[in-house]
Amino acid sequence: MNERTAARLTDFLEGARVAVPIMVAVSPFGVLFGALAVANGLSVGEAALLSATVFAGASQMVGIELFGQNVAPWLIVFSIFAVNFRHVLYSAACGRKIAQWGPARMSFGMFFLTDPQYAETERRYEAGYPVTLSWYLGLALPLYASFLLLSVVGAMFGRLITDPHAMGIDFLLPIYFLSLVMAFRKRPLWLPVVAASATASIIAWNIIGSPWHVSFGALAGILVAAIAPVRNGGNGDG
Q: In 3-state terms, what secondary structure has residue 206?
């Protein structure tokens, strides 16, 4: 094994190491999606296909809730886009850090750009390490494979879990996302952005409902970040 290959393997394994606790945190979400997909009329194969091609848990939840209803296809597409609009911002932020990959590799990598993928990419970059394709895929591929597998498990056996709230497994994902948010607490405007986003999300949840509160919360945070002045010394990547 030459030095270049060894470096790529090291980066890949480092990414995979980072993926392990994330897989634990998202596992209930994958199982829940599979169970809900079957409950809404999808087959096990269709649930697996949806995870394999969309790979965005929140928008998948929106899709399965709308597929079985008398809803126009364009509205389903629009709803999924609205929930996933934040990924446009994710790709813009990450694009500057992986420009050396080239257009084809960047396009491939963006398919895996989930919330934890974005957060860990930002964290690695801010720590002063290069965001290599090997590291990125080391993180992305285990997450992708585990979510796909858990979707199938949920579709096949999810009905055996009668009350996930009683078991507390539905709380793992919120805890993980809270840890992601706290990891950025040293950034300029962190507190005003988080406060605005949280307030808008809560209001939207009570007035409009899920999943629109995600988009409204994101937009509120974006507006505060765009309007409020940033003190000198900010890193410009926020």
A: helix
Q: How far apart are CA 117 and CA 122, in angstroms?
A: 9
Q: What is the pLDDT of residue 120?
A: 92
For residues 3 and 200, what is the distance between their CA atoms, to the nearest angstrom? 50
| Residues 146/23, Cβ–Cβ less than 8 Å | yes
Question: Which residues of the chain have a pLDDT value below 70?
Answer: 1, 68-69, 71, 158-177, 180, 210-212, 229-238
CA 117/CA 141 separation, integer angstroms? 10
Residue 18: both structure tokens together: 């980072």
DSSP code string of 27-95? HHHHHHHHHHHHHTT--HHHHHHHHHHT--HHHHHHHHHHHTSS--HHHHHHHHHHHTTHHHHHHHHHH
Tokens of 233: 């010394």
State whether the Cα torsion 92-74-58-23 is positive or negative. Answer: negative
Cβ contacts of 74 within 8 Å, gap of 6 or more: none
Query: What pLDDT shows up at residue 235?
Result: 46
What is the C-alpha end-to-end distance of the chain, expressed in Å?
39
Structure tokens at 45: 């194969």
